[in-house]
Write a structure and sequence with these properties.
By secondary structure, this protein is α+β, with helices and mostly antiparallel strands. Helices cover 48% and strands 19% of the residues. Among the domains are: 36-144, Immunoglobulin-like (Sandwich), CATH 2.60.40.1530; 211-323, no CATH class. It has eight helices and eleven strands. A hairpin with a 6-residue loop joins strand 9 (120-125) and strand 10. Helix 3 packs antiparallel against helix 7 (300-317). It is elongated and about 155 Å long.
Amino acid sequence: MRIIESYETSIFPIMSKILIVTLICFFLSARAYSQEIKRTVEVDTNEILIGDHINLSIFVNSPSENNIFWPQFNDTITKDIEILEKSLLDTAQNINGNTYSQRLVLTIFDSGFYYIPPIRFYYKRTGDTSLYYFDSDPIPITVNTIAVDTSQVIRDIKAPLRVPYTFRELLPWILGSIALALIAFFILYYLRRRKQSKPLFQIKPKPKIPPHRQALEALDKLKDEKLWQSGKVKAYHTELTDIIRVYLEGRYKIVAIEMTTAEILDALKIVSLEKRSIEKLDQILVLADFVKFAKLEPLPLEHDLSFNNSVSFVKETMERPNLEMKNDHNENSGVATAENEKL
């Protein structure tokens, strides 16, 4: 008995010390855990009307040696609580470790009392293969309906409001109408031109340059080339007579290019030309024939004489429709006056 009593006396102090140390370690570890990870899950309101929005803010601050596995949210949290919008996960570093935050926009479409269930976060510690987790607290939500005053008279549903059309709304119709009108006009225009056997688009011909203008411009160009001054006498007189021959074809409709000098002068007898004009033309053509066929070397004055006679011949014989009509009118007026005087 005395041995048992001494044993009990010696064992109880030891057991009490072990129990005290165990409790201290438990509380220290719990406190260390509570200081290790901080999380905040809260809403901006706990009471809404049907269909209103709830902003759910999630915030976690964890030491940098922890690897947090952030929960993935779908379209709903529960079958009654829907997620309308999700922000991106925002991460940041600070002196206390890593900070994670995200915002969800929730809604509920039925009245009643609901709970946002605890959100579970998993994490691992550096150098530790174990998987740990912690949960947030559940959040109560009350959803109310809109109060209806049953004492009021029930009214019919209002008719839709008539909103005037804006220019932006009418613009497509205006442009469409213009396009249809253009298409219809084009079709009618095409059928009409086809019936008349005319081309769809008629290109306006360029105005024809009068023969005398062509000849005078060619003579100015020949003068600037200075052919006979550089020893090209035959080329000078050949080109000079070609200019005059082309002018005669356009002015009097004779094939002067293929005619000899004698044939040209003979063909112009039917045209009422002044004698001086015939003499100038004869000098130009005859001198050119001597240069081309007899290898004559004319004097400088003769070169200039042929050129000046060419310019004078064109100006004296060029067509003057307005002047001729005016002369005819004056002659007719003179004849009529003379007849009136006789009467």
